[in-house]
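lol ok so funny story. i was supposed to be doing the assay writeup but got distracted and ended up predicting the structure for this chain instead. priorities right. anyway since i did it might as well share w the group, maybe its usefull for someone
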Amino acid sequence: MQPFFTRERFGQPQFLAGALLLAFLGQAVFLVYAELHPPGTVEQFAFNATEQVRIAEGLRQWHGGGIAGAPYPDAPTGLPPEISENVGFDTEHSPLLALVSAAPLLAAPPRLLNPEIFARWQWLTRLPFLAVGVFLGASLWYVAHRLCGNTGGFIALTLYCFSPTMIQSSAVWHTEPRIVAAWGSFGAIFTAIAVAHTLYAPREVVLWNWRRIVLLGVAIAIAVGSQFSMIVVVPLALIFLLYLAPVRRGAAVVIWLSGCMLALVLLFAAYFFHPHIFWQAMRHASFWGVNWRRFIVLVGYRQTARELLRACPPLMLLLPVAIATYMVWPRSRYFGNTAPGAHALLFLALGVAHAHGGSAGFMLASIPFLFIFVSGILADLIETRYRALITAAVGGLLAAYILWSLLALARVR
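and the output, tada:
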């Protein structure tokens, strides 16, 4: 049996990637601390209304008091816009986010849930999302490292680990925990790609791929459970499977169906296996919130540009360079660059076409794919005869980006 702890799995690149992820985690933890312990106050209940409702609903479901958001027990007055005004169902999310938010509180004594002292312990509810942010960064590193080599992997991970939007989303700092949907969609697409590549092996493909089938099902369940409109990853996964494994399309379809069935079971589990409630929740769910008329309104495109600039300021320079290089240089037009670029473009388009939380969810989910696309193009450029010049330019830009991000974080109140 091949040993697990090998230089290929745990070498210097992996330790450097781990150091970057620790830096990401440290920044996110600092944001949590800055929000929950603002200067000049001793205690402050810093939850916004939506977060309070989400945590309360999660605790209610964990303790057998009903299913979170399916429906809400009180009138939906004052609740977020994704709540159906007629019946009180959450039309955009399953109970997954509520259960994850409240899960760390299950081990806390009941007295800690008293609002008077809970302000000192509410950071517990952020732990799952901090972990998801680190997991998404690790997944990004793994994929970029495999597609683009060490150079591309480090560029992509550096862009991620100092991205204000990704740090904010992981810390749930004055925002919704959309980082979970981003991780699920990223995992679903690249797990499907990985499964397709294994179909060329001369083995019993379905049984041999049971681990990847489980990963595919879990990723789809996480994506759709966090945001119903992320169901678009289901047909996208099938498209990648059929495209990359044309000689074994039957096996690809069986694997895809198996993953979808597992995802359905896991989504049903989020409703604690109550069939009637699950059916009613699916009836009221908004799986397709696209408004085609938003494509002819310039406001959506301006907002998209602002969000991308805010997510990663270097993209203002790197993305046009990457797109121009992809258009004029045939060597850069291969699957490892095309797939994440096309997927990022699709998610950006869906972000423009959606309203409310669905738009922000697709915008956030597009960012990791953009990082892989940009890092892949830059890694290709670094391999040319202009290696020294491009390396110096990219290194200087990333160093300025890191310094800017840390200074901006230090000014947070």
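DSSP finds 17 helices and no strands in the chain. The radius of gyration is 22 Å.
back to the writeup now i swear
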